[in-house]
Automatic annotation (TrEMBL), chain A:
It comes from the Eukaryota. It comes from Patella caerulea. This is Glutathione transferase. Keywords: Eye lens protein. InterPro entries: Glutathione-S-Trfase_C-like, Glutathione-S-Trfase_C_sf, Glutathione_S-Trfase, Glutathione_S-Trfase_N, GST_C, GST_superfamily, Thioredoxin-like_sf.
Automatic annotation (TrEMBL), chain B:
GO terms for molecular function: glutathione transferase activity; structural constituent of eye lens. This is Glutathione S-transferase. Keywords: Eye lens protein. Residues 2-80 form the GST N-terminal domain. Belongs to the GST superfamily. It comes from Patella caerulea.
């Protein structure tokens, strides 16, 4: 096994899915976290001037999606075979469509009135639309309770993480979606993830 | 080989990278193009999640352009020769996706003055930053391709995502000779050259 270091800010953001996968697999890694004081020194050393960066035996790689795909491959969270990998990627793609809606509300919209409007839309209309998609995939996968195949994949972890942020804004948001709720419990039942979630601030 | 039917609008948009993957790999597929004017019509209900594109593999439907392009690339030798090469390929694909997001914001903005601002940002900041990263990668890799010594999804993703800006802002590219070389080399690959020679020009 290579030596892994994950470089990210001291936040969940675009790094948490990697941390969740490392923990789910029981894979040791250095969880390097930057503050606004320590980031400027590291920035020029990164491949693209951004975080996260994954360091594999001393070599640096950028782009969160690339890092997640690599870890999913290496740690066994990409399903079995190319068709299951495709199914995993479909779910990742759906989440990638939801993320810009969240970025707009939480980081980009400057006008306070528009921001409130967008947040309301995110927590009602948008969440409902995407949660329905997630449940469709879960139901079409049969009775395993996972998004793809019969076990935990990156698909479950990526959805788990993004929904966490929505729950922070509206605690009851997953309640009308029992199949999605059950999938969250599956993710939390992974011993590595359970232990990590307990210790996570 | 499975039978493939690719469903998308009759333009490049989010579908062209997928088409280029099939073509580059020499894999036959039905290139089903849906008239924008006929959408949604009866087409939307046929899709997995109300959107295009989707790929039918022996009749089973799969959505999400990125997922589709990765599937074809994995299946037909466009994903490099190792997991670390795949990681590098996905890095370039990720940069291309980030640039696409900036391009889309500048193209679809409804407010006229905001749009002018975004178009200027695209030409003066987003595009040069993206090209600078690409130039760095090509220079370090040395083969003329983004990753390894052969064509991968990285080259095809970049080729496709730069189509509009290469047409609209060719002067910006002058400072990025390796990017230009790579673009010429990809366009000259026999199967791609044949496809490009017959492809009708679309705005996006």
């Amino acid at each position: 096994m290579p030596t892994y270091r994950l470089h990210y800010f001291d936040a969940r953001g675009r790094g948490e899915v990697a941390r969740l996968m490392f923990n789910a697999a029981g894979q040791k890694f250095d969880d390097v976290r930057y503050t606004k004081d320590t980031w400027p020194d590291f920035k020029p050393k990164t491949p693209f001037g951004q975080l996260p960066v994954l360091e594999v035996d001393g070599k640096l790689f950028g782009q969160s999606g690339a890092i997640f795909n690599y870890l999913a491959r290496e740690l066994g969270f990409y399903g079995n075979g190319n068709l299951e990998a495709l199914q995993v990627d479909v779910v990742i793609g759906l989440v990638n469509d939801l993320i810009p809606l969240m970025l707009k509300v939480f980081f980009q919209e400057q006008d306070e009135t528009k921001k409130k409007e967008l947040l309301e839309k995110l927590l009602t209309e948008d969440a409902k639309k995407f949660f329905n998609y997630f449940e469709k995939v879960l139901k079409e996968n049969g009775s395993s309770g996972y998004f793809v195949g019969k076990g935990l994949t990156m698909a479950d972890i990526v959805v788990y993480d993004i929904v966490d942020t929505l729950i922070t804004n509206k605690a009851t948001i997953v309640d009308p979606f029992p199949v999605l709720k059950a999938n969250r419990q599956k993710v939390e039942s992974n011993p590595g993830i359970a232990a990590y979630l307990k210790s996570r601030k | 080989m499975p039978s493939y039917k690719f469903n998308y609008f009759d333009l490049r948009g989010k579908g062209e990278t997928c088409r280029l993957c099939f073509i580059a790999a020499g894999v036959p597929f039905e290139d089903h193009r849906i008239d924008r004017a006929a959408w949604p019509g009866e087409y939307k209900a046929e899709t997995p999640f109300g959107q295009l594109p989707y790929l039918e593999i022996d009749g089973k439907k799969f959505a999400q352009s990125g997922a589709i392009a990765s599937y074809i690339s994995r299946e037909y030798g466009l994903y490099g020769t190792s997991s670390l090469e795949a990681l590098s390929i996905d890095g370039v694909v990720g940069l291309a996706a980030d640039y696409f997001t900036n391009w889309a914001k500048s193209y679809f903005e409804a407010d006229a003055s905001k749009k002018t601002e975004l178009q200027s940002k695209l030409k003066n900041t987003d595009l040069p930053s993206f090209l600078a990263n690409l130039e760095k990668i090509l220079t370090a890799n040395g083969s003329g391709y983004f990753v390894g010594n052969q064509l991968t999804l990285a080259d095809l993703s970049v080729y496709d995502v730069l189509e509009n800006s290469y047409r609209d802002h060719p002067s910006v590219y002058k400072s990025y000779p390796n990017v230009l070389e790579n673009r010429k080399a990809i366009a000259a690959l026999p199967r791609i050259a044949e496809y490009l020679s017959k492809r009708k020009a679309t705005e996006i």
